[in-house]
Amino acid sequence: MPFINIRIVKEAIADDPAGKKASIAADVTAAIQKATGLSENDVWVVFDEVPAADWYVGKTSVAERRRS
Predict the structure, then answer these.
(1) CA nearest 7: which of 40, 55, 61?
(2) pTM for the whole structure
(3) Which residues form the 4-oxalocrotonate tautomerase-like domain (predicted)?
């Protein structure tokens, strides 16, 4: 059974976290189903939300990059 772990900047989905997670999970599940022939109940999707201040690109946090 595929286990998909999605790490996402928390603020990227802040305006509708439940709705955006559901949409992403549905799309990812559909892609896995199409590629493998598995049922949707065989695909697990887990989200890890990381604050922008804790996610870095090189030496700069995403929060800092967004302020620029």
Answers:
(1) 55
(2) 0.89
(3) 2-64
Other residues' Cβ atoms within 10 Å of the Cβ of residue 32: 19
pLDDT (tens digit per residue) in 5-25: 999 999 999 999 999 999 999
What is the C-alpha to C-alpha distance for residues 35 and 8, in angstroms, rounded to an integer? 23
**DSSP state, residue 16:** S
Determine contact, residues 31/38, Cβ cutoff 8 Å: no
Superfamily of domain 3-66: Macrophage Migration Inhibitory Factor (3.30.429.10)
Ordered by start, the domain boundaries in the chain are 3-66
